[in-house]
Each structure stands twice: as C-alpha cells, then as structure tokens.
Design a protein that fits this description.
The protein is mostly helical. The protein contains six helices and five strands; from the N terminus they run ααββαββαααβ. The chain has a three-stranded parallel beta sheet with strand order 2-4-5, with no helix packed on it. Helix 2 (18-28) runs parallel beside helix 3 (44-59) and helix 3 (44-59) crosses helix 6. It is globular, with a radius of gyration of 15 Å. 17% of the residues are buried.
C-alpha cells in the first residue's frame, strides 16, 4: 500500500477548491499532526480542520491517531486554561459573527486533542 504525506501548502494547486481537497485529505489520513502555535486559534481554517480531525479519529475505532505538537505554546494554552487561545477564539467569534455552537465545538475539539500526550517545542531564540 502506498503511503503519502499531505501538506496543504504543497499539495493544493492554484485554482483548486481548498475545502474539498483538504476535507478529502483529512478523511483519507491515518495520522494527524496538528501544530499548535501562538496564532493557531486565530484561524477559522485551523479550528475547522481540527474539528474534522477529531471527528474522523473518534469514528475510526482506533485506526487513526492524533500526534499533537505544541510549538511555542503550552498544552494549557490549548486546553483553554490561559487567555492565549480563549481570547483568540473570542475575537474570531465576534469578527466572523460565529454561532456559540460552532465555537463550542472548536473548544471541545481543542480539549480533546490536548488530552493526548504530544511534543512541546520551544521557539529557538538565538
């Protein structure tokens, strides 16, 4: 069986619909590696992708895994215990006029992923 890695900046072609291709790639993947960064929760795309990832993993009956990377953020940021992600989501909600239900789904997805042991990577400040 041929295995491949999907990177959206390399795999998506100019003029191609992002939502369809990305959704299909998420559906077909067996391993997900979300990279949680300082600005992750400021992106509606990132949060929507995470929601798909969590949904696909939960229905896979153990056949799909999430391996989170916490890049220059602490797991408590992702778990919404600090203002970093909480404030970003709140700003996004007001800016895009999003429903409470959609925002609550994102929060639940973040909490679920944060329960998984991941790698903490600090930004090199040289």
């Amino acid at each position: 069986m041929l295995e491949s890695v999907f990177l959206d900046d390399e795999e998506l072609r100019v003029g191609e619909r992002i939502d369809g291709s990305l959704g299909q790639a998420i559906h077909n993947s067996k391993i997900y590696i979300p990279n949680f960064s300082q600005n992750y929760a400021s992106s509606q795309w990132c949060l929507s992708e995470l929601l798909q990832i969590v949904a696909n993993t939960s229905i896979s009956k153990g056949n799909k895994d999430i391996l989170p990377i916490f890049f220059d953020v602490h797991p408590d940021d992702v778990k919404l215990k600090t203002p970093l992600y909480r404030n970003a989501i709140q700003k996004l909600k007001h800016k895009k006029k999003l429903s409470n239900e959609e925002v609550d789904e994102w929060r639940d997805a973040l909490m679920e992923v944060d329960a998984i042991k991941g790698w903490e990577v600090k930004k090199y400040k040289g």
